[in-house]
Design brief:
By secondary structure, the chain is α/β, with parallel strands linked by helices. Helices cover about 45% and strands about 15% of the residues. The protein has a seven-stranded mixed sheet with strand order 3-2-1-4-5-7-6, sandwiched between helices. Helix 9 links the parallel strand 4 and strand 5. The structure holds S-adenosylmethionine.
């Protein structure tokens, strides 16, 4: 991750959410908010059926995959809030708009945690758009160097109350040390009945074998966000277990398509990215 440039992968993921796909566009006004040529092109694609279809094909099903991943994690938000979580920490929030669009968060306090460069750009885009969430707190944190614990402590997070931790599309960009350090803070600040919902990348990467893997590695390294944090399902389970969480589900896009609609055949290309939902279940809050 560049020190001063906002994350490009965050922008691409947000763009995928702004294009109608298997599910309606999630963030319809993104083009206007991003502005400039990219925003205009995005608006054009999003407003045009043929454009949207072309983008879905050209993006090798990434649009479909991101729609379904978003739906899978929105489902985890609904479950965790229904189970009593009123604190939600979005780790590596990027341009995620859940705090602005999910009615389920109406009674929740939400912490937007991200790299300072990406967060500054998000704040510029959103201006003073009011969130749906009861309260929104910004915390600029580089997981590789900054003290997440101190930031949350200083910004009103209460470790005695259950928290939902959302970590979507981030672990694959973090070295193991940063993943562990972040989970250490999650563990220390998670009251019983806290939830953790994350996506992670399994090492087999794209179908297409070594060549596809080498190309993807070059592309992501080239944009300054190398894929250094892939983990096997066993490693993921061990990591969450060490942080005191019990795995409740571990799914990939064919399962999400069955649950939320959409074309599992197309999104099958990215089944290497999975969503794990885990619960800190010892005792009661
Ligand atoms: C692919 S984006 C996902 C964004 C968002 N979760 C979403 O799904 O829209 C990856 C995010 O990880 C964040 N990130 C990557 N490395 C980071 C680091 N060392 N510290 C803080 N955030 C980081 C980027 O700023 C970016 O917002």
């Amino acid at each position: 991750m560049h020190d001063t440039k906002p994350s490009l992968t965050a922008l691409l993921v947000a763009a995928a959410r702004a294009i109608p796909g298997p599910l309606p566009a999630v963030d319809a006004q993104l083009g206007a908010q991003v502005g400039g040529k990219f925003g205009a092109v995005l608006d054009l694609i999003a407003s045009n059926k043929a454009g949207a279809l072309l983008a879905r094909a050209a993006g090798l099903a990434l649009v479909d995959h991101i729609h379904l991943r978003t739906a899978a994690l929105d489902g985890a938000v609904a479950e965790a809030v229904a189970a009593g979580c009123r604190q939600v920490v979005v780790l590596g929030a990027g341009y995620d708009r859940r705090a602005w669009r999910l009615d389920a968060l109406r009674e929740c306090m939400v912490w937007e945690v991200d790299h300072p460069a990406t967060q500054a750009e998000k704040r510029r885009q959103l201006g003073d758009a009011p969130p749906v969430a009861a309260r929104l707190v910004w915390a600029a944190v580089d997981f590789a160097v900054d003290d997440l614990d101190a930031q949350l402590q200083a910004n009103g997070h209460d470790p005695e109350r259950p928290t939902l931790w959302l970590w979507e599309g981030v672990t694959m960009y973090l070295p193991q040390a940063a993943q562990r350090a972040t989970l250490g803070v999650v563990q220390a600040r998670s009251a019983p009945q806290s939830w953790l919902a994350l996506s992670y990348l399994t090492p087999q990467l794209l179908p297409g074998g070594k060549l596809a893997k080498a190309v993807a590695a070059q592309v992501f390294a080239g944009i300054g966000e190398p894929l250094v944090g892939a983990m096997s399902r066993t490693q993921m389970r061990a990591l969450l277990g060490a942080a005191g969480f019990d795995l409740a589900s571990d799914t990939a896009n064919p399962e999400w398509a069955r649950r939320f609609g959409g074309n599992a055949g197309v999104a099958f290309l990215f089944r290497c990215e999975r969503v794990a939902v885990a619960l800190r279940s010892q005792g009661s809050p």
